[in-house]
Amino acid sequence: MDPLDQLVRSTLADGYVDLRLVHYVMTEYVAPAPRCHVALTLRRDGVQRTVEAQGSGFLEAAFRGLTQHVAPDAALGGLRVVGFTVDGHMASSRDAKGLDALARVRVEVQPPEGPAEAFEAEARSTLAASLLAVVRVAERALNVGLAARRLQAGADEARVAGRMDALARSRERLAVLRPWLA
C-alpha cells in the first residue's frame, strides 16, 4: 500500500468507499465516425447504480461514466489519462479443454500536480480489465476527494478551537493529497 493510500484509508477509516464493477454493456460504432456508448453497473456502499456515457472510444466513455457516478465527491476533474497498455498471455481455460487469454491492462493518469500514477487490472477480457483499471482510478480519486474534505473540516475546527498542533497536522496531510486535487 502506497503512502497516499495509507493516508486516505486512515483518514476515512470505515468511510472508505469500495467501488466495484458489477457488469457493463458496450456499443461501439467504428464508421463513419468512431463513438462508443457504455452502461456501467457499479456497486458503492452496497447499492447498485447504472450510469451511461458516450465517448470517442471505450476508455473515454468509461471515464466519463465513472466521473458522472462519483462526482462531486471525487478529485477526477483534473486527471488526464497519459498511458494505456495491454498485455496478454495464454492460459489454460478453467475446464482444461482449450486455451484462454488473460489480459493485463495498465492505465496511467496524471494528477493536476505530481507524477503520473499507474493502475493495473487483469481479466479474461481486455474490455473488463480496462474497466477494472479505470474503476480503480475512480475509486482512488473519490476517496482522495472525501479524505480532503474530512481533513479540511478538521483543519477548520482546529483553527476555530485554537489548536495549532492539530491544524498543522491537518495541513501536512492535506499537502500529501494536494497533487490529486484540481
> Strand arrangement, largest sheet?
1-2-3
SSE topology string: HEEEHEEEHH
Give the domain tally: 1
Termini Cα gap: 23 Å
**Major sheet description:** 3 strands, antiparallel
Strand content: 25-35%
The name of the CATH superfamily reads: Alpha-isopropylmalate synthase LeuA, regulatory domain
Task: Fill in the CATH topology.
Answer: Double Stranded RNA Binding Domain
Mean pLDDT: 88
Structural class: alpha+beta
> Percent of residues in helical segments?
40-55%
Shape: elongated
By CATH, the architecture is named 2-Layer Sandwich
| Regions with little confidence, pLDDT below 50 for 5+ residues | none
How many strand elements? Answer: 6
CATH secondary-structure class: Alpha Beta
Quickly count the helices.
4
Rg value: 19 Å
